[in-house]
Amino acid sequence: MSLLRVEGLTVALPPGGDRPHAVEQIDLTVDRGEIVCVVGESGSGKSITANAVMGLLPKTLPRKAGRIWLGDTELTAQSPEQLRALRGSRMAMIFQEPMTALNPLMRVGDQIAEALAVHGEKRRARDRVPELLAAVNLPDPAALAKAHPFRLSGGQRQRVMIAMALALEPALLIADEPTTALDVTTQMQILRLVREIQSRKGMGVMFITHDFGVVAEIADRVAVMQRGRIVEQGPASAVLNNPRHDYTRALIAAVPHGAPAHTRAPVTTETVLEAKGLAKTYSRGGWFGARAVVKAVHDADFTLRRGETLGLVGESGSGKSTLARCVVDLVRPEAGHMLFHGQDLRPLSRADRKPFRKRIQMVFQDPYASLNPRRRVGDIIAEGPITHGEPRAQALDRARDLLRLVKLDPGAMDRFPHEFSGGQRQRIGIARALAMEPELLIADEPVSALDVSVQAQVLALLAEIRARLGLTMLFITHDLRVAAQVCDRIAVMQRGAIVEIGPTAEVFGNPQHSYTRALLDSIPGRGWTPPVF
Amino acid sequence: MMAFFRSFARNKGAVVGLVVLALVFAMAGLADVIFPGTPWDMVAAPFMPPGEMDMWLGSDSLGRDVAAGIAHGSRISLLVGAVSTVVALALGVSLGAVAGYLGGFVDDLVMRFTEFFQTIPSFVLAILLVAIFTPTISSVVFAIAVVSWPPVARVVRAEFLSLRSREFVQAAEVLGKSRLSIVVGDILPNALSPIIVLSSLMVANAILLESALSFLGLGDPNLMTWGFLIGSGRSVIRLAWWMSVFPGIAIFLTVLALNLVGEGLSDALNPRLAGRRT
């Protein structure tokens, strides 16, 4: 008998949504000692399914039909009190955002002890807490139990969350995108940890993710969700290597495959941008106590040749965004030279800088924050050229052409950004940058906030535009598979310094630096090559 | 726009406030029609209670019509409220914007200057300013504006601080827009909702301040105001209650209406609250 059985689960959406049901007719089982991955894009209903199992659905999303069993217990027939007793003891959940999931004012050990105390195991807490912290491979459990959450890194916090979830040895663990907010190397550690604990304790794990790499890394079985329905379900190897449903095929085809694209603009030897000895340090405090100094960028020399794409890869806090922002003068470096066609940009004043603004443009990470919500799309795209003296009517005409170039309807001109999806907004952001007819485009994680299929479309668009306009690009990303696909050369950053730089094939095929090797080893699903359709 | 009115109308109190405010405006506009001539004219016997000698709200100690005084006084109250708020907004928004956008040393300087004004009790400062500059309508407006800009500066600075680091502002920066056009064109429109809400409350506060100054005899001596009416009726309140009570009710209703409208605006302009209140 299965550990978890979901039968015909249907959850309604509030009226006025894009579909009547959040999830519809979900049938799902999780066996003991098995990891089932539920995979789908944002809005597909995977988190709703998980919350329905935990009995955590908000009142606005009522369950319409279906039954859920945990072992012999029918969860859907339990009272709220009974469910509360089951949560934590028989089934537990870990969440996506480790930074906010812990109470910032409570010591880590006390929070785990609280999980035990709630279920009447207060007396065991003293022995169990260090044991649990050791079980999730945290160093020095005794000292760590006395620490407050702010002293812990994201990965460590996620481990604490897992320790808390494991406190009462639940039979079922639900993990809702537990590694999405983490760096790749940390993600790999957490995935290994989940796998190890699961096999040691024989738990059933329902693992929610949007990343097929993670699925390939961890799953025994896979359920693919689309618009509230499970469209395909089966053993991991079958779904990953031989998908039957069109949607699964589309998703897998959209996974960045790491192979470089074929169409390339010819790379010349002409240097467009050269960074020499750039340094940026942030300091904090100083009135009382010690001054904390962070070297955000140092030893980051690189050159960009006309027509090439240089990838800046690294984990969060490695300084890759700061370096990119130095190039467009959003961050002022204290030292070094930044030569654009031989002219040093760093000492230029705001006014002297203006002519160069036209030639260096940027695409931002967050499509929801990078467009002014109070402006119409046409004005957003046209305002750059207008600022640089182009007549308004002409700029608006060009904006219309640019919308066509980024494959949006020119009717979008008079609408506001909030009427568009994330992928569409990112296209508007690209059109805004292209309106200036730049020669150098800086793309700061342009696809990391997008779903995998939208991500593939935006990457294809960027590749096409680059080939057509002969753009030089500085492409910042944390996703090595994306970098491998897009970039001619790769620069790996660690703690503010470029530790390795070279042609993509060389860096990936024969990494010299130990950090590069660690990064490459952490790519989830490395052993899996997505099938080609 | 329609959606905005709908979410505003969802707050019943705000609609009531708006209606009361419209009535006050109508009274100010029609004062010359309903009560022709100046309200200072003696038109009846003194101390007539409401209803006698064709006077709805009675007459004062010199036989002047209280109702005429209230109608004509509403003009001054609304004028002072509006003009001093505009002046205070101009001061507060520009200082707050400069501090929030530029940050660093300029921010420190502007905020210390703001705190300097905030540490002085605002009413005492207003009395002082009016007393120094002799009581005229412009000195009253000036004094009220000077004591009411600091909260605006603080709110605007806070909004600018958070908006400044948003990506769309950085994008404008990368496009090469000038500082002024970024501040006015990109940041300010996104900071507008709290400013609108705050300004409706500031008008209410300015009306109260003006009344208080007039009550103390620091209003413009040539103008009939609500505060003056209450002040002149104060000494005979046991003999002729209507002289202070009716202007008091006028102040009370106007200020309440403005506060209700302000709250309604704040609900309607806050996307997280809009739609939740029933």
TrEMBL record, chain A:
Localization per Swiss-Prot or TrEMBL: Cell inner membrane
Cellular component, GO annotation: plasma membrane
Matches recorded under SUPFAM superfamilies: P-loop containing nucleoside triphosphate hydrolases (SSF52540)
SMART domains: AAA (SM00382)
Keywords: ATP-binding, Cell membrane, Membrane, Nucleotide-binding, Transport
GO molecular function: ATP binding; ATP hydrolysis activity
Pfam families in UniProt: ABC_tran, oligo_HPY
Domain ABC transporter stretches: 4-252, 273-520
Cross-referenced InterPro entries: AAA+_ATPase, ABC_Ni/Peptide_Import, ABC_transporter-like_ATP-bd, ABC_transporter-like_CS, Oligopep_ABC_C, P-loop_NTPase
PROSITE patterns from the UniProt entry: ABC_TRANSPORTER_1, ABC_TRANSPORTER_2
Biological process per Gene Ontology, one example term: transmembrane transport
The UniProt record lists the keyword Cell membrane: yes
Similarity comment: family membership: Belongs to the ABC transporter superfamily.
Protein's name according to its UniProt entry: Peptide/nickel transport system ATP-binding protein
Annotated source species: Falsiroseomonas stagni DSM 19981
UniProtKB/TrEMBL annotation, chain B:
Coiled coil: none
Transmembrane segments annotated in the record for this chain: 76-102, 123-147, 195-218, 239-261
Gene Ontology cellular-component terms listed: plasma membrane
Pfam families reported in the protein's UniProt record: BPD_transp_1 (PF00528), OppC_N (PF12911)
Keywords on record: Cell membrane, Membrane, Peptide transport, Protein transport, Transmembrane, Transmembrane helix, Transport
CDD domains assigned to the protein according to its UniProt record, in alphabetical order: TM_PBP2
Topology in the lipid bilayer: Multi-pass membrane protein
Main location: membrane
Family classification: Belongs to the binding-protein-dependent transport system permease family.
Protein name stated in the entry: Peptide/nickel transport system permease protein
Protein species of origin: Falsiroseomonas stagni DSM 19981
Lineage, uppermost ranks: Bacteria, Pseudomonadati, Pseudomonadota, Alphaproteobacteria, Acetobacterales
